[in-house]
Amino acid sequence: MSEEKEPERGHGRAQPRINLRPFLLAAAGLLCGCFLYGCIAFGSDALIGGAAFVLLLLFLLPPFGVRRAAVVLGVFVLFALLGAGLMHLNALRFESGPPAGEYSVTGTVEVASVRGGYTSARLTGLAFDGAPAQGKMELTLPGEDVRVGDVVAFSAHVSRNALPAGGDGYAQSDFANGLRYTAAPAQYAVTGRSGNLFLRLNGALYNVLHENMEKDAADIAYALLTGDMRVMDGDVAEATRTGGIAHVFAVSGMHISVLYAAVMLLLRRPLGRWATIPALLLGTFYCAMCAFTVSSVRSLLMCAFAGGMRFFGKKYDDLSSLSLAAALTLLVSPAQYFSVSFRLSYGAMAGIFLLSEPLSRGLRRYKVNAALANNLVSGITSQIFTLPVLLGTFGYLPVWGMLLNLIVIPALPVLFLPLVALTALSLVMPFAAGVLLAFPEGLLSATLFVFSVADVSAVIAGFSLGAGAGVWMALNVPLAARVRLRPALRAAACGAVCVLFAACVALENAAFSGCRIDIARTDRGACALVRMDGHAVLLIDGDAGVYTCTDFLRRTYGGELDGVAVLSEDIVRAVNTAAFLPARTVYAAYPTQTGLRETDVVCGETFTIGGMTFRFEAADRLTLSAQGCVAEFAFDGGEGVLSADLFAANTDGRLKYLFKDGIIKAL
């Protein structure tokens, strides 16, 4: 890797806005290709997000020499085409394989979590009716005896997962993880153990922790060691997310770096520069046990890059290291572009590398302690860069995240290293596991106690960024310290992008006039939020669970609902879901009992809220009259939540409404 040298001042040559880093250019090109393919083929992002790539190119091109321009544009376009092509091949591969139907299936458990008498598992090494099949399967099993590394067999109806469309986060996750199939067999059998050493070790790790520690502490220990948060209690897992410290349980740069640094510290004196090799071997072994998660692979590649540079006495460049890791990841698995782990892991590090320098200078100017300053800067810059991902994924921004990270990040090595060492000894000496694991169990129990008495659930929610997500990413380009801009030009660029960002967010969330409809439809249920003149009504179907509804509301609306209308033949189930939502009244077509909690359920053919009139045409079909228009809602498997077009309320056949970007307005 070579880095273009900066021209010396005073020699009459224009200084480049950004040093030409080949790996950065390649990674940016691959990301742009994946982004454009997602926009065109899947409708996953707003095209305005491409502004970030346009700005990057504009800053890379100066000074406008023919050679530099040819290299920048040529390499960028080449890797953009390569990224789009690889994504297309990945999409074709995802759709290949056996169709949906009844099969006898065998597979190896790669990930498993037990809860409420059921096991949620992910299978790899699949065989359908004895024939090998590519891809992975998401599975729900009626039992608690399945562990990572087990080989299971069953007969069931297997469904195919669809390619992501319209920004469906669940489908994007399935695509990124290669989950092509879904099944929920009534019976299954564990027929053996995998020959994969790392999967067997993962399963043994789960057993030794849960056999010698209290369950909640064991769940946290397992999540901390493997990155699998699905085993954790739902309330604890949600508390870590709303507290902004969920990254602690993703096997990430902190975990790999702590291991790498610990080995280097222990072996540097006897082995010198050769200590890099055992440190990387341990990191690779650990990544394999964690099924090579995106964040762990990113950290391992960066450690390998840093170790290699130091081994050969070369200068280490953190941005080039991150870019190389991103490029290699996308070349091997372009679908990881849709992975939340990829976006958060690489985005957080990009934010630290690009934005931390000016903040650090400012804090040093005010004599802030170096360790405190580093923690503050890392937390602020990583969250600045990943804000769109956090809001788009979880629907909220944690209020206490910055403060909690000041405590959690320095404390992680104190908890993580003893846990790794004592768990490893427990696997070697299972007869002493109870004694060895008593210390980490005490620390984890104390952590659970803190979370039980401290409320860290305050979040900023009830709005979405929409096209503003792409504008926000573009804002980070002129903010980056590595982009050489005069203060006036930097301020002007940032100011213009801020104004555009504010406009995008306002247009996305405000209904200045008319009746606004926001819709969401996934395989976990459908929702529609209708707002007009300060009133809000949520429409849900029978498949929408409490989590689906609350997640949708976090992204679209932060206040109390005037009502929830249920559109389902299974009215009891839908009303029971509606009973747990922040609404004054639940509306249904027919009388029913909630069965769970006292709720004001109003049954009838018609109800009116503000200027909106709703009419049940059937248990699962409803029409809305607003602004002199009528819209029909039906959750019956159509392509969208609105199964019928809007139609004029009058009878003269002329259109009397405008339906654009979810807004109904009278003309």
Q: Gyration radius, to the nearest Å?
A: 27 Å
| Number of strand elements | 22
Strand content of the residues, in percent?
Answer: 15-25%
The N- and C-terminal alpha carbons lie at a distance of: 61 Å
Strand order of the largest sheet: 15-14-13-12-11-10-22-21
Task: Outline the low-pLDDT stretches.
Answer: 1-12, 638-661
How many strands, which pairing sense, and closed or not: the largest β-sheet? 8 strands, mixed
How many alpha or pi helices?
20
**Helices and strands: which structural class?**
alpha+beta
Describe the SSE topology:
Layout: H1 22-42, H2 51-60, H3 66-95, E1 101-115, E2 118-128, E3 131-133, E4 136-141, E5 150-160, H4 169-177, E6 179-183, E7 189-193, H5 197-212, H6 215-226, H7 234-242, H8 253-271, H9 276-289, H10 294-311, H11 318-332, H12 340-365, H13 370-394, E8 396-398, H14 401-428, H15 433-436, H16 438-453, E9 459-461, H17 468-479, H18 487-509, E10 515-522, E11 525-532, E12 535-540, H19 546-556, E13 563-566, H20 571-578, E14 586-588, E15 601-603, E16 606-609, E17 612-618, E18 621-626, E19 629-634, E20 647-648, E21 657-660, E22 663-666
Parallel strand pairs: 4-6, 12-13, 13-14, 14-15
Antiparallel strand pairs: 1-2, 1-5, 2-3, 2-4, 5-6, 5-7, 8-9, 10-11, 10-22, 11-12, 16-17, 17-18, 18-19, 19-20, 21-22
Helix pairs in contact: 1-3, 1-11, 2-17, 5-6, 6-16, 8-9, 8-10, 8-14, 9-10, 10-11, 11-12, 12-13, 13-14, 13-17, 17-18
